[in-house]
């Protein structure tokens, strides 16, 4: 398993930058869901207060919830797929401001799930996910490399290249 971390990005919110900010640790799980056509499922977020961006299914762990359980729950809520996420393949940390405006330090764990073919069912999305107009799309790896909107993390194809032991396949 590899620990991946990016340099801390500066927060572009003047009110946040003008004072010291105590950041809580936000524990979350992300699922790299690929299909038999070697495509990766990503969701487009379109918040009103920032430009649209894409990321893999997943989200914050509930209180007392471990990362693998959160991965399975988030995968089901966001896609309708109920399956074991398998072993953790990577970890990542970063500082950023959440969609709700909270400055946090993330502790993200990544899981890899393969499906032969799959129609995404978004009926289990949360209120926040619906408000952010989350839109699923299957991407080829070439499309991810060339996509015109930000995809987070920017190392997502490196993560997809890891096998379930955390080593490059």
| Name given to the CATH homologous superfamily | Nucleoside Triphosphate Pyrophosphohydrolase
Proportion of beta-strand residues: 35-45%
Side-by-side strand order of the widest sheet? 1-6-7-2-5
CATH class: Alpha Beta
**Sheet/helix structural class:** alpha/beta
Gyration radius, in Å = 16 Å
Tell me about the largest β-sheet.
5 strands, mixed
Number of strands: 9
Label this structure with key terms.
169 residues, alpha/beta, Nucleoside Triphosphate Pyrophosphohydrolase, four-stranded mixed sheet, 5 helices, disordered N terminus
Characterise the protein shown here.
With 169 residues, the chain is of the alpha/beta class. A hairpin with a 5-residue loop joins strand 6 (88-97) and strand 7 (103-115). The strands form two sheets. A five-stranded mixed β-sheet has the order 1-6-7-2-5. The protein has a four-stranded mixed β-sheet with strand order 8-3-4-9. The protein is globular. The chain has helices at 14-17, 67-79, 127-131, 141-146, 156-160, and strands at 2-5, 24-35, 39-45, 53-55, 58-60, 88-97, 103-115, 135-140, 151-152. The protein has a single domain (20-160), classed as Nucleoside Triphosphate Pyrophosphohydrolase, CATH 3.90.79.10. 22% of the residues are buried. It starts with a strand and ends in a 9-residue tail after the last helix. It contains five helices and nine strands, in the order E-H-E-E-E-E-H-E-E-H-E-H-E-H. Helix content is 20%, strand content 36%.
Topology:
Elements: E1 2-5, H1 14-17, E2 24-35, E3 39-45, E4 53-55, E5 58-60, H2 67-79, E6 88-97, E7 103-115, H3 127-131, E8 135-140, H4 141-146, E9 151-152, H5 156-160
Parallel strand pairs: 1-6, 2-7, 4-9
Antiparallel strand pairs: 2-5, 3-4, 3-8, 6-7
